[in-house]
What we know:
It is found in: Membrane. The protein has one domain (7-63, 84-399). The protein is 73% helix and 0% strand.
Amino acid sequence: MYLVEKKEGAIACMLLALFFLGxxxxxxxxxxxxxxxxxxxxxxxxxxxxxxxxxxxxxxxEIGKGTDExxxxxxxxxxxxxxxxxxxxxxxxxxxxxxxxxxxAWAFVGLSVTEVITSSITVVIGTTMNYFLDDxxxxxxxxxxxxxxxxxxxxxxxxxxxxxxxxxxAKLRHFANSKSDASRSSLPVSHETYEDxxxxxLQGEITTxxxxxxxxxxxxxxxxxxxxxKVFGKSTIxxxxxxxxxxxxxxxxxxxxxxxxxxxxxxxxxxxxxxxxYTAFFWFSVSCFVVAIILNISFLYRPVLNLPRSSFKAxxxxxxxxxxxxxxxxxxxxxxxxxxxxxQAAGYAAADxxxxxxxxxxFWGVILxxxxxxxxxxxxxxxxxxxxxxxxxxxxxxxSSGHRK
Length: 405
């Protein structure tokens, strides 16, 4: 069994995990904006997410000859380690709920802000729990100022969303007012009602030149007509509520995994070795897979947020974008595995530095989706402040890395 033991190796795992975990949400967001149902996308994603854990278990978990203290993956499957297995599976359940929630939150508040808020909540709650579970191997005088920086980032993230939403409303009002008197007279008076019906009323009024102007009102209308989750006319409180729920779920999966691999509460019988990272990650991913399959198949027939009904047969025949969804599952699976490998060596509190994934997600959000294009100066200032606080927080958290004996 291969183990990451040096601090440098742990940091390398964290950085690679940071890129993977920041990229897969962009792929799922891309598919939703192209009109693919999130239930179809998530079912594809969860298959390769589990497959990544199986690959890691049968490679890193089976390298070399195991010992009584450090048995290989297959040996641990037959041992009496169910208390630790249940902790790992509990972590997979909350992660699955969090990932499923964010898929809907991205449509309401955008990829960048969703990742910032959920990651910041994860660090504030999860990192604190991991610090004490890891017997304080991380430097508190460095770790907790980093947690404070994440807390500032989540506040700025909320401000960015509010400012950008205000900018979008102003664009839509200006677009409506620029139409002829006849066109304007057929539009509802209130802005909220206008947002709800603007796609139907103005669908044929977007010119080719307007479509190329990313971030314009025409771009927002065209996006609303095409995407699978309709957000016009819906309260932003819904999106923020989903986002905060996802953040709480994310804050619990790493401490649960920590308990699974280190047994701080002494739940295992004498002589039973602790779960390796790879065995724990396998059971973690199995429970994540089961929850995702059950919920998403039920959402096919009883969709949420006014999404259209689908069926398992329709999912099987929907190949549009399936490759991207499968790739997203691999990226998330390997990203989580690398995070846990680094956390087992340097402390799970320090490994929460991978929650800097909004830095990567924001990059993809701006490049792929035109987020914050043609926004106000106030929005750009808030966005810059948010990203700066994230960079500082990540640097501080990595500097607090310890060494597990």
